[in-house]
Specification:
By secondary structure, the protein is of the alpha+beta class. It has helices spanning about 5-10, 15, 20-25, 35-40, 45-55, 70-75, 80-85, 90-105, 125-135, 165, 215-225, 230-235, 240-260, 345-355, 405-415, 425-435; strands at about 140-145, 145-150, 160, 160, 175-180, 195-205, 225-230, 270-275, 280, 300, 305-310, 320-325, 335-340, 360-370, 375-385, 400-405. The chain folds into 3 domains: about 1-105, Serine Threonine Protein Phosphatase 5, Tetratricopeptide repeat (Alpha Horseshoe); about 120-260; about 305-435, Nucleoside Triphosphate Pyrophosphohydrolase (Alpha-Beta Complex), CATH 3.90.79. Bound molecules: zinc ion and magnesium ion.
């Protein structure tokens, strides 16, 4: 026996026309209406008939938060999608608003914007690497147990840059990574690298088992000078932006070396190549190690993609923010989470929003990204639009999630609101700031 949903899906217009009003309004267990089915299967005649006679179905969202027009769009039935979409003028306007939100940014976040040219083509040139390492203008950022060396004598609380003389005593067992060259400071001085100032990261952690005495001595000497290995946060937030970007690169690379000493497939030690940017299994090519097969024979520094999103209410005058239990009291921020294998970053945005808050997101607009080297994330920032408003914390990752009005948010940005936000240097703050200060309401 046919039902109205099957009739709509298969294009049986006569059947649909003969149904009573009330039946045409019914929904199935996934919240789909008869118009959703017509849209999903590209049935233009039925979509036209329902639009003209049952206009109220146009705005109904199904259990996945999709209108019939969005379903048609998704499945590639452009004609049906156009037929069921809101009037052209309104659509045009919201697209413009969205692109103006993205355009006004082109934003460089803290920890990005490094002044270094990475000179990737030198990484395989041992002669160049030796020269840049022994150059008298070379600078080394030292790490111990993943903490960079700060110079607290410096009022600005800057990083300490060692020269090659200083680290000569170190036996260089720890990670040594070529970071790049600051070409703004070219030099023709004897012994200097002529390209500019070479930057390196060097891990001088003392391995407690072999207790290398030259390293221990180096640590003592540095300490005597008032230098200190400290956690990169919060001190890193006080650095100038360029130093912070160099620190971000160095910290992520040293962390990668610290956590990856053995081949993940067979457990043999890894060999470091290309100035610290590549590792390969040290086992014999004829061994059973799978890393010698195919193109997976090397390991490269890992970057974990994280999405972070400022979700705008369907009425465009509020945004959704959440808080985790361990955060400072009253602090709220954007929804965030790791991208999983086999999903696009915009799908990750929709999944995280749904898991953490029960909110369905449709349009996802890119804002900017922020490297977050703790240890190796890259935050992809978005502003996106919600299609429903009922908050439901499905995965219990958040302690609370709620809508905040524009005036609440402006208050928090000024620091005198009913809640607080992450610091300016965090991308979450920048996403929220962009939404709150956009001249038009960000209706998408
Ligand atoms: Zn191996
Ligand atoms: Mg999550």
């Amino acid at each position: 026996m046919t039902n109205i949903f099957e009739a709509a899906a298969s294009g049986d217009l006569d059947y649909i026309k003969n149904q009573p009003q009330a039946t045409l309004k019914s929904r199935n267990d996934r919240g789909w209406t008869v118009l959703h089915f017509a849209a999903r299967y590209g049935q233009l005649d039925i979509a036209t008939y329902l639009r003209d006679n049952h206009g109220e179905l146009l705005t109904v969202v199904n259990g996945d938060g999709k209108t019939p027009a969005q379903l048609a769009q998704f499945w590639g039935y452009d004609q049906v999608a156009q037929l069921l979409s809101p009037p052209q003028q309104e659509q045009q306007q919201s697209k413009e608003q969205l692109s103006s939100l993205s355009k006004q940014v082109n934003h460089v976040n803290f920890f990005a914007g490094s002044p270094l040219n990475r000179y990737g083509w030198y990484r395989t040139e041992q002669d160049h690497l030796n020269r840049l390492m022994h150059a008298t203008n070379a600078r080394f950022l030292l790490f111990s147990k993943l903490d960079p060396l700060f110079d607290k004598n410096d009022k600005k609380t800057g990083l300490y840059w060692a020269d090659v003389e200083k680290i000569k005593a170190a036996s260089l067992e720890g990670a040594l990574v070529f970071l790049g060259i600051d070409e703004r400071f070219v030099s023709d001085k004897e012994g200097d690298a002529k390209e500019g100032i070479p930057y390196w990261a060097l891990d001088i952690t003392v391995n407690e088992k072999d207790n290398n005495m030259t390293l221990v001595q180096l640590h003592q000497d540095l300490e005597k000078e008032g230098l200190e290995f400290s956690s990169p946060l919060p001190l890193g937030f006080q650095l100038d932006r360029e130093s912070a970007a160099i620190l971000a690169q160095a910290r992520a690379m040293v962390d990668w070396h610290t956590r990856n000493k053995f081949c993940p497939a067979c457990g043999n030690p890894v060999k470091i190549k290309e100035a610290g940017y590549k590792m390969t299994c040290s086992s014999n090519e004829t061994s059973q190690c799978i890393s010698h097969n195919g193109i997976h024979n090397f390991a490269y520094p890992r970057t974990d993609a994280v999405v972070i999103v400022c979700i705008v209410h369907p009425t465009a005058d509020k945004i959704l923010l959440g808080r985790q239990k361990r955060w400072p009291a009253r602090m709220f921020s954007c929804i965030a989470g790791f991208v999983e294998p086999g999903e696009s970053i915009e799908e990750a945005v929709r999944r995280e929003a749904l898991e953490e808050t029960g909110i369905h997101v449709d349009h996802v607009a890119y804002h900017s990204t922020q490297p977050w080297p703790f240890p190796n994330s890259l935050m992809f920032g978005f502003i996106a639009s919600a299609t429903n408003e009922q908050v439901k914390m499905e995965d219990k990752e958040l302690e609370s999630a709620r809508w905040f009005s524009r005036s609440d948010v402006l208050g928090a940005l000024k620091g005198d609101g009913i809640f607080t936000l992450p610091p300016k240097l965090a991308i979450a703050h920048q996403l929220i700031l962009t939404w709150a200060t956009s001249t038009q309401p960000a209706k998408m």
